[in-house]
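Worked problem 6 (solution included).
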Amino acid sequence: MRWAGLENVQLVDYHALRERDIERLADLVEKHLDGTLLRELCGLEAT
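Solution. The predicted structure is:
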């Protein structure tokens, strides 16, 4: 990308970003959704 004027290249760890965002999503789901109801709706637990 130097041909386009980029001087400093910063490497991005996409695996780490993905893992961080998956953990963030899991934390939000756990915090804001009723886990028992969610499992029942998904057919993972007897009603």
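Discussion: The chain has one domain: 11-47.
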